[in-house]
Design brief:
Layout: E1 7-12, H1 23-31, E2 34-37, E3 54-57, E4 60-61, E5 64-65, H2 69-81, E6 85-90, H3 100-109, E7 113-117, H4 122-129, E8 143-147, H5 161-166, E9 170-174, H6 180-189, E10 197-202, E11 210-215, H7 219-225, E12 232-236, H8 243-246, E13 258-261, H9 265-277, E14 281-284, E15 288-292, H10 295-306, E16 313-316, H11 319-332, E17 343-346, H12 349-356, H13 371-382, E18 389-395, H14 401-408, E19 412-423, H15 431-438, E20 442-445, H16 448-456, E21 466-469, H17 472-480, E22 487-488, H18 494-508
Parallel strand pairs: 1-6, 1-7, 2-3, 2-6, 8-9, 13-14, 13-20, 16-17, 16-18, 18-19, 20-21, 21-22
Antiparallel strand pairs: 4-5, 9-12, 10-11, 10-12, 15-19
Helix pairs in contact: 2-3, 10-11, 11-12, 13-14, 16-17
């Protein structure tokens, strides 16, 4: 008997840019027990899946299907009948040449619940990111979308090339770049204009985005010379000429630069998005995972957190420490004023910003955002701290520099472990394989632990790959492992690191 509590969401994952996934699509990923994703859905979306969710790759490329379509249909029905929430991620929109209609029919015939969540189709998003409007009052008022890839068991093509050749307005072809020569020849044979502008947009909206333009008579040869392969959207029409003025996406400073982000997965998204907004092709390989304190450390953490009001100073040397401390504090306290009269010190602006999220200010931030810099700030800006009570909320294994300096100054110091960093041993998005296959222009490190754990993954950093570090402590860890640092942030913050990365690539191409 069918379990009616299950449901399958057929979700359009958009063209690739994470910002173009709908809010409802993200919600469907977050609540899913099973996520079935295809080749054209951005694998970074899997980071939103809940712990323990079953992740199934069902990608399909030409002549290379991870799971045949019939198997995908059976899979969706089976998991949904078991009462699970299934999210099927399909690149672009599920009903625009995505076989979403077929999958929905299978679910209907099996008597299980389903919903269709539309997505932004690459047929309009790809050209838009290439500066090509598919409609424009000065060029056209009609849009035709067709597929260049048909069922292989068809006896003859159902595409009416004569109609396409003479249809007014813009024509957009999805898939079929491998058959581009045959398709353009067929359109030309039916009276198509040889000088009609044509644009090809590959991996549209992502960091691998690439555009090639030509005419109906030249585009196939140009694509072959450039080895311009799928996935690509093809635009036929005079609107392609608008690209000269409207090409905005490809002018970003980090366009085409493949950059590895090694931050913990829950922290990586902000940094990755900042790089993507500048045009970078980001590969997220989390080298570390943040875990809460355990055992006796957890007990001590809870005790010190409960008595935080009794200290003169609270010290936080990372956003993670602040987040775990205040999350725990407000689980047992309802009023921020219960923190008492203690003052708060943060190692840098990022940590202070995290503290501000809890509506609390910071009394001390050093000019140099390191443990040594914080110790100097206490000595130079606060004055005598002898017999002052301080609680340092830190990571397990943190440097002893700060505690040694404070103890030497006769501070009454308690240290409590809020979390620990452990090596990340999972690779749900296939990022490690992509790095090993494609390499990268730059690898970024935002802490010493990311350096050690990235190298522990057995990943090589070739001499041709630059290394960017967020600050001197991280740079020292890179140097200790025998690698040169090409870029170091002036301040130990993400914006400063981004600025340094942009400066590096600008100078290297000057």
């Amino acid at each position: 008997m069918t379990d009616k509590t299950g449901i399958c969401y057929l979700v359009g994952a958009g063209p690739g840019d994470p910002g173009l996934l709908t809010l409802k699509g993200k919600e469907c990923i977050e609540k899913a027990d099973v996520v079935v994703y295809d080749y054209l859905s951005n694998p970074d979306f899997l980071r939103w899946a809940k712990p323990g969710a079953e992740l199934i790759y069902a990608g399909k490329k030409s002549k290379d299907h991870a799971i045949p379509q019939g198997g995908i249909n059976e899979l969706l029905v089976d998991r949904t009948q078991k009462g699970l929430i299934v999210t099927r991620l399909k690149g672009g929109d599920p009903l625009v040449f995505g076989r979403g209609g077929e999958e929905a029919e299978e679910l209907y015939d099996a008597g299980v619940k389903f919903e269709i969540v539309p997505g932004i189709s690459s047929s309009i998003a790809g050209p838009a990111y290439a500066g090509i409007p598919v409609t424009h009052r000065d060029h056209c008022s009609q849009l035709t979308i067709f597929t260049g890839h048909e069922r292989p068991d068809k006896d003859e093509s159902s595409i009416d090339y004569k109609q396409i050749a003479h249809a007014p307005g813009t024509k957009v072809m999805l898939m079929g770049v491998e058959r581009l020569g045959l398709i353009t020849s067929s359109i030309l044979e039916e009276g198509g204009d040889p000088d009609l502008p044509v644009g090809l947009v590959r991996w549209a909206t992502t960091g691998q985005h690439e555009t090639l333009t030509g005419t109906l008579s030249t585009i196939a040869e140009l694509a072959e010379k450039r080895n311009f392969k799928a996935p690509a959207v093809c635009v036929f029409g005079t609107v392609v000429e608008c690209r000269e003025k409207l090409n905005w996406f490809e002018k970003r400073p980090l366009r085409g630069k493949r950059i590895v982000v090694t931050r913990a997965q829950h922290q990586a998204s902000r940094f990755s998005r900042m790089l993507q907004d500048l045009g970078a092709d980001v590969i997220e390989i989390p080298a570390i995972r943040i875990e809460s304190a355990k055992g006796s450390d957890a007990i001590e953490f809870a005790e010190c957190m409960a008595s935080a009001h009794s200290y003169d100073w609270l010290i936080f040397t990372s956003p993670n420490a602040a987040e775990r401390f205040f999350d725990a504090f407000f689980q047992v306290r309802e009023d921020a004023r219960e923190i008492g009269g203690c003052r708060i010190a943060a190692v840098g602006p990022a940590t202070a910003a995290k503290i501000k999220e809890y509506h609390l200010g910071t009394d001390l931030i050093p000019q140099v955002h390191t443990a040594e810099g914080l110790a100097d700030a206490f000595a130079n800006e606060v004055g005598s701290i002898e017999n002052t009570t301080m609680l340092w909320v830190r990571a397990k294994g943190a440097s002893k520099t700060l505690s040694e300096r404070l103890n030497k100054a006769q501070v009454i110091l308690d240290e409590v472990i809020a979390y620990e960093t452990v090596p990340e041993d999972s690779d749900p998005t296939g990022a490690v394989k992509r790095y090993e296959t494609d390499g990268a222009d730059m690898v970024t490190f935002t802490s010493a632990s990311t350096v050690d754990n990235f190298l522990d993954l057995g990943l090589d950093i070739p001499e041709t790959t630059a290394i960017a570090s967020i600050g001197p402590v991280t740079s020292a860890a890179v140097d200790e492992n025998g690698h040169p640092v090409a870029v170091e942030a002036r301040e130990s913050t993400l914006p400063s690191l981004i600025e340094a990365i942009c400066d590096y690539f600008e100078q290297s191409h000057a």
